[in-house]
Amino acid sequence: MKHSFYIGIVFSLVSAYCYSQPFDIEEKYRGDPYFSKVNMQKLEKDCTLPLDYEDLDAAKQAKIKKRCQLYNFSSYFHNVYDLIDKTTVIYQKNDLMLALNKETFSFTQEDAIFSGFKLTLSLNKNNETKDAIILANDFMNRTSLLSVGYQYYYIAPSGDIYTLSLIEMDDGIGPQRWRHYKIDEKNLKFHLVQMYDRHYQVSYPDNFTILPDPDRIKYYEKGQFERCLKDESEDFCYVDDVYLYYLEQLNQKTAQLAEQTHTTKNLFFPFKKKRDKLCLSKNVLLNDNKLVPYLNEIIVCEIKQLKQEIKRVEKELAKEY
How many Å apart are CA 294 and CA 3, to the nearest integer? Predict the structure, then answer.
C-alpha cells in the first residue's frame, strides 16, 4: 500500500485540557514563538530553492534565501545547545520539575548513517521522570553529506509546546512535521494536541484531515482504481486516494439528502466529527517510528466508516419524502 505526502497549513488550536499556573521559564530556554503558528505551505514555497540557484549571482541568492525565515534560527538554537550542560532544570514548582537533557545520537536508515545531538524535555515528579519528548535536534547524513535535519521549538508560558522538524538539502529546507503539546500537571504527561505530518492533519480528539496532493500525478491502469475501492491494501493503491474518493461521495450524497428532506442543516460535518473521533480513539501513537502504520490504521478505519455511512445515506435517499 502506497502513501502520498503533502505539506498542509498549520493553525494553532486551543486545547480541551485544563491546566494550572503559567510556566515561568527563562527566555533563553523558551525557544522561539515563531513556531507556535506556522504556515507550512508558505514555508515550503519560500524555502524551496529554484533549479538555477547555483548559477545565480550572490545578490540574487541572498534575496531568495531571505524569503525563507527558517535560515534565521540556526544560531539561536546552537546557543541553546551550548547553554545546556547535559541536564539543566528550566522550571521547578514544589516537587514538579521540567528539565532539558542534551545527548548525542546516531542511527542507520537504508544503509545511510545519521548522527547528531538532541534536546529532550522531561517532566519529573519527586525526582522521577514521568514523561519526555524530543524538543529539538540537529543531525546530518554522514554517509552522503547531502542532508541535514533540524527540529526547533517554543515553550509558551501557558504550557503549550510547539515543535517543527525540518530537512535541509541542496534544493532548500523542507518543513516535515509540526506538533503541539500541552503540559498536563495533573496526569504528569505531555499531551499531544495536534499533529500535522506533511498533508495529514490531526487535532485530537475529533478531527482527522488529509489534504489532496496537487504535485502527485494520479495514475492507475485501467480497472486498477476500481480494484482499490474494493480492497485498498493492493500494492498499487494509494490509500489516501481511496479515502478522498469516499469522502467526496459522502459529501455529495449528504448534500442530496439535505436537499431532498428540505433541511438547512449540514449533514456532512456531524458525521465526520463522529467518525474522526471513533477512528482516533481506536488507535494510539506509541512513538514516531510507528507513525506510518498509525496513520494507515486511522485511514483504513475511516474508509470502513465512510462506506457504512454512504450505505445509510443511500437508504435514506431511497425513501419518499
Answer: 13
- Angle among Cα 229, 230, 231 to the nearest 5 degrees reads 95
**Nine-digit cell string for 293:** 502504520
The b-or-e profile of 163-198 (16+ CB within 10 A means b, else e) is bbbbebeeebbbbbbbbbbbbbbeeebbbebbbbbb
Asked whether 162 and 175 are in contact (CB, 8 A), the reply is: no
CB 242 within 8 A of CB 302: no
Q: What's the predicted TM-score (pTM) here?
A: 0.83
Q: What is the DSSP string of 114-134?
A: EEEEEEEEEEEETTEEEEEEE
Q: For 192-244, how does the pLDDT look when each residue is reduced to its tens digit (9 = 90+)?
A: 999 988 789 999 999 999 987 766 667 788 889 999 998 888 888 889 999 99
pLDDT at 7: 34
Output the CA angle 288-292-294, nearest 5 degrees.
Answer: 80
If you average pLDDT over every residue of the chain, what do you get? Answer: 86
Which of 63 and 15 is assigned the larger pLDDT? 63
Q: What pLDDT, on the 0 to 100 scale, is given for residue 110?
A: 80
Quick one: which of 104, 103, 81 has its CA closest to 29? 81
